[in-house]
Amino acid sequence: MEDNTKHLTAEESLLFITRMIRHAQGKVQRNSVFFLLWGWIVIIANVGMFALTRVGYKHPYIVWLIAIPAWFYTMFKAYQNRTRPQSASTHFDHVSAWLWISYSIVIFTLVFFGAKINYELNPVILLITSVPTLVSGAILRFRPLMMGAAAFWVFGIICFLVPKEFQPLVGAAGILIGYLIPGYLLKNVKED
Fold first, then answer.
1. Angle CA(170)–CA(148)–CA(35) in degrees, nearest 5?
2. Got the DSSP string for 42-64?
3. How far apart are alpha carbons 161 and 142 in whole angstroms?
4. Could you tell me if residue 5 is inside a domain?
5. Sign of the alpha-carbon dihedral angle for 166, 170, 173, 175
6. What is the pLDDT, as a whole number, of residue 76?
7. Is residue 2 part of a domain?
């Protein structure tokens, strides 16, 4: 029985890994729309909630309903991207997908049981958001996403320290720095 396994040199291995990372960066670059979409949705919802609270509206959280169509759009685009015959998925793609799926499950759980913590979700969500953002940045070797994760940690801590009525503004600032800036930078990265 013959061993048909090709042994790669160190240079070939490095080239293979570099290609995989570039492939993953290209996919994430094409999917930067999700960072931008959710960045804008969350900023608009946070600022809207702050404004509705300031004018004394009884149910300021109603503004978060704008997330429902965004969620459907995200599911549709993710399915569409997955079924597109462009290229095969890599291990990085699978890790990233499951990371963001688990993040979504945690966020839905927090929202569903938010009453248990008096709906003071902004600090917790900002801190949790730092994890998939950091891991995605590390996988892609994209420093702006890693810095965005650090911003989520900082703004999460700040959010714990400000009065509840200002937490949506801190959340909006955190999303601006943690998602939108890296999202636009990722969108504009030139592929090699």
1. 90
2. HHHHHHHHHHHHHTT-S-GGGGG
3. 30
4. no
5. negative
6. 86
7. no
120 CB contacts (<8 Å, ≥6 apart)? 164, 167
Residue 33, in any domain of the structure: yes
Query: Range of 130's domain?
Result: 19-187
pLDDT at position 4, please?
57
Q: What distance in Å separates the CA atoms of residue 51 and residue 168, rounded to the nearest whole number?
A: 10
pLDDT value at position 5?
Answer: 59
The structural domain count of the chain equals 1
Tally of CA atoms within 13 A in the half-sphere of 151 that contains its CB = 21
pLDDT of the residue at 62: 92
**Averaged pLDDT, groups of 10, the chain, 192 residues long:** 60 60 57 86 95 94 92 83 64 80 90 83 94 89 92 96 95 95 84 52
Give the total residue count for the chain: 192
Residue 13 lies in a domain: no
Question: Across the chain, how many H-helices and E-strands are there?
Answer: 8, 0
- Asked if residue 130 lies in contact with residue 149, where contact means CB atoms within 8 angstroms, the answer is yes
Predicted local distance difference test score (pLDDT) of residue 117: 83
Dmax (CA) of the chain: 79
Burial class (CB in 10 A: 0-12, 13-18, 19+), 189: middle
Which phi and psi (to 5°) does residue 82 adopt? -70, -35
Q: What is the residue type of 43?
A: I
- pTM for the model: 0.78
